[in-house]
Design a protein that fits this description.
CATH architecture: 3-Layer(aba) Sandwich
Strand content: 15-25%
Number of helices: 11
Radius of gyration: 18 Å
Order of helices and strands: HHEEHEHHEHHEHEHHEH
Strand order of the largest sheet: 2-1-3-4-6-5-7
Helix content: 40-55%
Oligomer: single chain
């Protein structure tokens, strides 16, 4: 056995092998970005569920606009912010499919605010994976709806000001006021332990959808070293030390517990 083959088998035994649903291609994401981690988690869960052939994803306009390059599943695009509307149509026409949207804070919480609120309120039977890095990434680092107070961005060089720009939108808390959602959870990507918790949340969202309980959403507090102007390790620390104070992780709705 060659050393390369042995190394591959060793990685597989330790859980480091590339998931079958994750394509072996170079990524366009910046160094330290959390999107690649979430992509892998989704791929791992689909592999474990054996659902890759029966899954349809809807990609956003934003950093993850090229998500179809990274998953070996059916992926379609949606106009900016209309991702939940497209997912609604797909799920209603093909109810036997596992359908999910993958969205950033701009696509979901800015131009797509009305779409996500009404899809959640109707209890649409698809899952949402919401990557919240509190800044616009694809367009150059401008203020996002989730940008925290005092955070400096390209459009808030002096920091986000409450009187001028308002407060950051807390998506899980907002959607938790509605009757339609069955499962809402906020997780972080700040450590290996938290990434494992995030994977459990991905699986839970899919399980809730397959059980027909209603709308499900997982929000990931994700690092953006490039536009936070931080080294990757400092960006992970920033999540725990700062962002979780504004966006507390936790379960905001779990209908499976309510009905248990």
């Amino acid at each position: 056995m060659s050393s390369t083959t042995a190394a591959k088998k060793n990685r597989a035994a330790r859980g480091y092998a590339r998931p079958e649903t994750l394509s072996a291609v170079p990524t366009h994401y910046c160094a330290g970005c959390g999107h690649g981690v979430v992509h892998r988690l989704v791929a791992e869960v689909l592999d474990e569920m054996g659902m890759s052939e029966a899954t349809i994803a809807v990609a956003p306009v934003g950093c993850a606009v090229l998500a179809y390059d990274y998953w070996r599943i059916d992926v379609t695009e949606a106009p900016h912010g209309r991702t939940p509307a497209v997912a609604t149509g797909i799920k209603r026409v093909q109810p036997d499919k596992l359908v999910f949207t993958y969205q950033g804070d701009g696509d979901l919480a800015a131009i797509g605010t009305a779409e996500i609120i009404h899809a959640a309120n109707r209890g649409e039977l698809f899952s949402v994976f919401f990557v919240n890095n509190v800044v616009y990434g694809m367009t150059g680092g401008q203020m996002a709806p989730t940008t925290i107070l005092q955070q400096k961005t390209q459009t808030t060089p002096l920091g986000r000001d409450q009187k001028t720009h308002g407060n950051p939108i807390r998506v899980c808390e907002l959607l938790a006021t509605l009757d339609g959602p069955a499962y809402l959870e906020r997780v972080t990507l700040s450590s290996p332990g938290n990434v494992r918790k995030a994977k459990k949340a991905v699986r839970k969202a899919f399980d809730v959808q397959m059980a027909g309980l209603g709308f499900s959403l997982v929000e990931f507090l994700s690092p953006c070293p490039t536009y936070w102007r931080m080294e990757p390790d400092k960006a992970l620390e920033h999540i725990d030390k700062v962002l979780t104070g504004v966006f507390p992780p936790g379960v905001y709705r779990d209908r499976t517990r309510t009905e248990a």
